[in-house]
Amino acid sequence: MGWRESAACRGEDPELFFPIGDGGPAERQTARARAVCLGCPVMPQCRDWAVRNGETEGVWGGTTAAERRLIRRRFVGRLPDG
Ligand code: SF4
User: Fold this and answer.
1) Residue range(s) defining the domain that contains residue 50
2) pLDDT at 80 (0 to 100)
């Protein structure tokens, strides 16, 4: 996972990317985490890694766990190697 060297979240509190629950505070935390991801040069690699590895928690590559489940269902076997 060499892409992690370039991650925009390296200096961030890791807990930012793992909101608990699904109410307003968690949604605001998710939005803050996504904002970091949107400025990240390795967002596609991070997202694809999380999808491929079935990460069930947290924001990875700007996606939530629910979004990654959807991606897996639609694109399983069609992601590029990485
Ligand atoms: S896309 Fe988001 S979670 Fe992934 S490395 Fe970049 S900042 Fe971190």
Assistant:
1) 14-75
2) 60
**Averaged pLDDT for residues 63-74:** 93
- Whether ligand 1 lies within 6 angstroms of the CB of 9 is answered as yes
Q: Annotated binding residue at 37? A: yes
pLDDT band at 77 (very low <50, low <70, confident <90, very high): low
Q: Please indicate whether residue 49, judged by its CB atom, sits closer than 6 Å to ligand 1.
A: no
Is residue 51 lining ligand 1, measured as CB closer than 6 Å?
A: no
63 inside domain: yes
Percent share of the chain, pLDDT over 70? 91
Q: How many domains does the chain have?
A: 1
Write the DSSP string, 26-76. HHHHHHHHHHHHHT-TTHHHHHHHHHHTT--SS-BTTB-HHHHHHHHHHHT
